[in-house]
Design brief:
- The chain is mostly helical.
- The chain has helices at residues 14-23, 32-71, 73-91, 101-119, 125-133, 137-170, 182-212, 217-231, 240-271, 276-307, 314-328, 338-346, 350-364, 370-404, 435-443, 479-491, 495-499.
- Helix content is 68%, strand content 0%.
- It is globular, with a radius of gyration of 28 Å.
- Helix 2 (32-71) crosses helix 12, helix 2 (32-71) packs antiparallel against helix 14 (370-404) and helix 9 (240-271) runs parallel beside helix 13.
- It has 17 helices and no strands.
- The longest helix has 40 residues, at 32-71.
Amino acid sequence: MWCKISITPAELSLLRFLSAELTRGYFLEHNEAKYTERRERVYTCMRIPRELEKLMVFGIFLCLDAFLYVFTLLPLRVFLALFRLFTLPCYGLRDRRLLQPAQVCDILKGVILVICYFMMHYVDYSMMYHLIRGQSVIKLYIIYNMLEVADRLFSSFGQDILDALYWTATEPKERKRAHIGVIPHFLMAVLYVFLHAILIMVQATTLNVAFNSHNKSLLTIMMSNNFVEIKGSVFKKFEKNNLFQMSNSDIKERFTNYVLLLIVCLRNMEQFSWNPDHLWVLFPDVCMVIASEIAVDIVKHAFITKFNDITADVYSEYRASLAFDLVSSRQKNAYTDYSDSVARRMGFIPLPLAVLLIRVVTSSIKVQGILSYACVILFYFGLISLKVLNSIVLLGKSCQYVKEAKMEEKLFDPPPSSTPCKPSSKPQSKCKPSQETLSASVTNQPSHQKENVIPLLVTSNSDQFLTTPDGEEKDITQENSELKHRSSKKDLLDIDRFTICGNRID
């Protein structure tokens, strides 16, 4: 109800108005909820850099583990598989399979790696460098943007090609043939890895030209392209699943950029006869590229979480989901290799990048003499030690993250069957496995599946709980929130399909 205030014209004066403006007061506690929310948003933005970088560091080490696997354990596994294949007639055929499915996939990866390495010798890096260097700055900027888009498309379709090859080569022979054959799939995989390696080589060459330009204009334009990414991301609607896709894409992009910077440094050091003084000339540009990438990621994620009311705790949930992929690949019922699960989750396929890095290292470093070969052997054992140490630390951290997210019981679920089943409405069991059981299940080798079980290449169990499980519902009467929770669980089943291409907003 409005109160009527009567003011005579004599009381209206400029002095009275100024006095009222100078002495007027207000109380913020009248809208306490609004200001508390604003303060929490500020605190969330302050927490984003730390939580995001914790996720980034964990994801980069996951990519490093999958990348080192190609150089260290994969050759040893291929050797053991070939040794079993050649010595099997001496011991008799005790099993129906000549090789285990994992050994077949290892041999295919090794053969693809060797073939693509020799094919890369027909690509002249020096001619490509001078060809790119002769182009204008604007044209190179457009080419670099096109290469980034092509890299995402290649990664999306490439993992499907490799998965199709692995499944075609290991599919039980009793079934009706529903494929074009192993050889066509193998040729497609070789062609994909070769073309993707050339694509990454063009990216590295363009970055190398930017580093060696006199006025650094191209490098500045390429760095400004990262800030254009903020404009295309922060003003879109993001859910938790979409933000998880973007986070995985950023992890893959950052790790790939680190490898590209390593290739650029190797090529430049070779041109200057491995003069250590030239390394300090490259160091400021390398730091500038890395710092701009980190700053763009922090600003982008800070504003995305602000505009979409997402808390900083969501990055801990993303980290737990990535940790679950690592732990589940060590289970008895594992149906995929860890490097392949990283490729599906983040879009990081190590084979093309490994082929290019081997090609650059072998062309940049000349090995001559017994001492040089001894150094190479010591370096290889050092890589193996680094891989084993990294795997042990990652596995321990992953078990810790899985326990903190209360996801241990999901590790002992059976692998997904060929026919989709409806989610059970019964509450889950309250008993949880002990730490000893979890550790034992992680270190054991995967057991052989029966023939009547169809091992399909489907998404992992971790897709069903991207976010931390809520456990038992405290309030069962909230049916709307429960239905919304179930619908979000269904959407997570398709998350890998869109992760590789970047962030997809429906």
